Amino acid sequence: MIIKRLGLVEYEPALEAMRVFTAGRNEGTPDEIWLLEHPPVYTLGQAGLPEHLLRNDAGIPLVKIDRGGQITYHGPGQLVVYLLLDLHRRRLKVRELVSLMEQAIIDTLAEYGLNAVRKDGAPGVYIDGAKVAALGLRVRNGCSYHGLSLNVDMDLTPFSWINPCGYEGLKTVQLRDFGVAETVAGAGERLLGHLDRLLPPPVSPAADAPAMSAAP
Q1: Is 190 labelled a binding residue?
Q2: Binding residue per annotation — 38?
Q3: Which of 37, 63, 130, 169 is most deeply packed, by most CB within 10 A?
Q4: 17-76: per-residue pLDDT in tens?
Q5: Cα separation values, 5 from 11, 82, 110, Å
Q6: H helices present in the chain, as ranges
Q7: CATH superfamily of 2-201
Q8: Domain BPL/LPL catalytic, which positions (predicted)?
């Protein structure tokens, strides 16, 4: 596993880099996890409805992309984690990966004394019904990209100009709202530890090959 801590990165170059990496993978390509932040941007999933952008007083760019889900917001002070994984090599199905990502976030928030939960039919992580983390994935040829975002210490105002993840009136929160004084980098390292613990180790291609019996 290669970990890249990229800092503040414009959204569209990061998206293109994920696509290029995924398209160029082969059996020996190590998995990667990228930790970063984005300047203000709205992203709209491949089946997303533009009407979920209610207003845009700040002229924030809207980028239509190839992950699942509806509209969300990224901005400074939000941890973004991209998981570029060979799911076949790790014996993972997409739903298992989603559940694993949610659990890693829940376990991370528990370290800060926060009780976070899943919500049936609405991927992500919630505290008292308000969304603190969002998930969105794309899988191509058995390999994942995109990932998750966790609100740490940011301006949440742009969330009020959308129906977050397509849900009208959904409240969004961040760690700072609960008295947690943490940096994006610090939250990233804690979350990374839980992802590393929960992700099954990769299996080498040789392990999939049928056993050869000795000639009589």
Answers
A1: no
A2: no
A3: 37
A4: 999 999 999 989 999 999 999 999 999 888 778 888 888 888 999 999 888 778 899 999
A5: 15, 11, 23
A6: 11-23, 94-111, 184-198
A7: Bira Bifunctional Protein; Domain 2 (3.30.930.10)
A8: 27-203
